[in-house]
């Protein structure tokens, strides 16, 4: 396998499957199956998941809610998703740990970097919930931050699109896909990969990002084996 330790970033919306909101157990089971394939090949797996299928702090703020309050609600939504994913992974026979940036001792360990690394070394899948624990930061930023902290080899951003395009492929039929990009290319072309804070943190720490279609069966294994799937952003 090309990558020994990965940080997999999943969007909350991805868990909806074909639903309008909430969590689709079928989609959860599919993701667990994909993750199990790389787990069995010895890849150490950390996961950060968004909360957009339940609540978005930004959209709450746009509707008149206090932004900080909304962001904390969004963090709790990521914990719910983390618990759901944890259950699916354990049903598939994997050992997991859920660590959260906000203390919720009844259901999760507090985030401790050394403990997280030890879990990974022992072959446990570590799910990081509650973002960074601070308002005004996205789960993309949390993913890169945790990836840097636990010395991940790569950030794998699993989306419903198969890479980075010249324009939004869902809106522009003429959009073409990039196979590889440098961090500088992304900035020059104004491409939307992650929010600016997350992207800058990844660039400063020379941590590559691969954007790929998580919903296509077998893609996660191919990415970890080093096949050219999706779009790779590196130095």
TrEMBL record:
What influences the activity of this protein, per its activity regulation comment? Answer: Inhibited by UTP.
List all membrane-crossing ranges: none
Q: What catalytic reaction does the record list?
A: UMP + ATP = UDP + ADP
Source organism, top-level taxon? Bacteria
Q: In which pathway does it act?
A: Pyrimidine metabolism; CTP biosynthesis via de novo pathway; UDP from UMP (UMPK route): step 1/1
One biological process term from GO is: 'de novo' CTP biosynthetic process
The record ties this protein, via Pfam families, to:
AA_kinase
Example of a GO cellular component annotation carried by this entry: cytoplasm
| EC category | transferase
Keyword entries, A-Z = ATP-binding, Cytoplasm, Kinase, Nucleotide-binding, Pyrimidine biosynthesis, Transferase
**Localization in the cell:** Cytoplasm
Residues annotated as binding UMP are 51, 71, 132-139
Give GO MF terms, alphabetically: ATP binding; UMP kinase activity
The record, for InterPro entries, names: AceGlu_kinase-like_sf (IPR036393), Asp/Glu/Uridylate_kinase (IPR001048), Uridylate_kinase (IPR011817), Uridylate_kinase_bac (IPR015963)
State its Enzyme Commission number(s).
2.7.4.22
Q: Where does the Aspartate/glutamate/uridylate kinase domain start and stop, copy by copy?
A: 4-213
Summary of subunit composition and partner proteins: Homohexamer.
- Its function? Catalyzes the reversible phosphorylation of UMP to UDP.
Assigned protein family: Belongs to the UMP kinase family.
Q: Which HAMAP family match?
A: PyrH_B (MF_01220_B)
Q: What is this protein called?
A: Uridylate kinase
Species of provenance = Flavobacterium beibuense
């Amino acid at each position: 396998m090309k990558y020994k330790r990965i940080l997999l970033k999943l969007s909350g919306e991805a868990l909806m499957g074909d639903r309008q909101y909430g969590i689709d157990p079928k989609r959860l089971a599919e993701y667990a199956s994909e993750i199990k394939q790389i787990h069995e090949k010895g890849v150490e797996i950390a996961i950060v998941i968004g909360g957009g299928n339940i609540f978005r702090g930004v959209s709450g703020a746009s509707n008149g809610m206090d932004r900080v309050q909304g962001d904390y609600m969004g963090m709790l939504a990521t914990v719910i998703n983390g618990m759901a994913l944890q259950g699916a992974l354990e049903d598939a026979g994997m050992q997991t740990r859920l660590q959260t940036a906000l203390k919720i001792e009844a259901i999760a360990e507090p985030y401790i970097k050394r403990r997280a690394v030890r879990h990974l070394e022992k072959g446990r899948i570590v799910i990081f919930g509650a973002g960074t624990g601070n308002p005004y930061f996205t789960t993309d930023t949390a993913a890169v931050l945790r990836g840097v902290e636990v010395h991940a080899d790569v950030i794998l951003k699993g989306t419903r699109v198969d890479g980075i395009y010249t324009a939004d492929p869902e809106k522009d039929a003429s959009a073409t896909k990039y196979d590889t990009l440098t961090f500088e290319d992304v900035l020059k072309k104004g491409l939307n990969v992650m929010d600016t804070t997350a992207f800058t943190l990844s660039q400063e720490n020379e941590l590559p990002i691969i954007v790929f279609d998580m919903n296509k069966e077998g893609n996660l294994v191919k990415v970890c084996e080093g096949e050219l799937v999706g779009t790779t952003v590196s130095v």
